[in-house]
């Protein structure tokens, strides 16, 4: 085989194995390629046999089928998880939560300060093309689950279009597209969202009482939330397959009497009710006195259902999962205050103004928006501008410009990955305790995105 043919094979192989490149590093497929090329050079094959004839070796002896070990050696090696999304404690962050708006149509006492919040100027918020681009960058690095949060994501006018575009990343490795919502207007958009790729909904509902709902949220709308929940259950009976979780923040002296009614929602319905310990954020007047530890919640449940027991959950679940024998649904406890889940945390957050937060309870942030907009003179990137930028980057990859990064990655993307990687590496082993969190300056929950 001529040297030119070998070089042709190498070039073809490199084009086919570009997905093996993660985090700016080439993996062992390069070494495998060089080894294969060396073997080809040493093998004198003057004329390959016709495709319709069995391949034979000298002596006209049929070649034995490859052994299992040989097949395993020839299979492509599995991708290694991106080093940019792996922290110093070997936690791999494959779950991205994106806040798509700061606005909300409720005023929940534990989330929104009584005086409200100062909303960011529209030009400071991420545009749809920017959100989709950042989503694609993270998916290319190994993120396979994206959750859209807020504020209230359904108040964003183009939320369905945004979900459609992010949903297309399933071709790149995205497995789950989720939504956290208060459900006020979800039922109007749910069908279109499912068609766009929605796989799971976390529905915030802290009380089954219409009157208490108005007190806790400072708004009306309980019936609309129930309508959204029932629509999900109805669609699931028709095969929609939407994972439904009800998030209930429990506050001592306010709604702990509803723990049992919430548990009993799962008696015949396939859903998971998650009881959340009240957490401190700026402006929500948190106090340890209001916080009901999960051990007390569990004791309340065991008083009525003594046989409630632990259920198997996912290793990265934020909740401790339990099940009442005979019930279809499950219950969970998010124990951020009394028993944190930091050791298995696989989550990263992007705020609606484009900052990366590596920890919900940490106040360290880094702007991804500013890096994105460097190529657009600091201005928000609309669809037209994004297409123009993509064309420039494509020209760079094709060698029409000399400013491409390593392995064909644009300079913008390379800079984003460097900043993301540094932020992830600085993630702490665990968050501060209740005492420190109470006094730590952080965003109000409404501006973080849950």
Automatic annotation (TrEMBL):
The record places domain Radical SAM core at 88-315
Q: Which UniProt keywords apply?
A: 4Fe-4S, GTP-binding, Iron, Iron-sulfur, Lyase, Metal-binding, Mitochondrion, Molybdenum cofactor biosynthesis, Nucleotide-binding, S-adenosyl-L-methionine
User: Kind of enzyme, top EC level?
Assistant: lyase
Q: Which cofactor does it need?
A: [4Fe-4S] cluster
Q: Which domain of life is it from?
A: Eukaryota
Q: Which GO terms describe its molecular function?
A: 4 iron, 4 sulfur cluster binding; cyclic pyranopterin monophosphate synthase activity; GTP 3',8'-cyclase activity; GTP binding; metal ion binding
Q: CDD domains from the xrefs?
A: Radical_SAM, Twitch_MoaA
Q: What is its EC number?
A: 4.1.99.22
PANTHER family xrefs: MOLYBDENUM COFACTOR BIOSYNTHESIS PROTEIN 1 (PTHR22960:SF0), MOLYBDOPTERIN COFACTOR SYNTHESIS PROTEIN A (PTHR22960)
- What protein name is recorded for this chain? GTP 3',8-cyclase
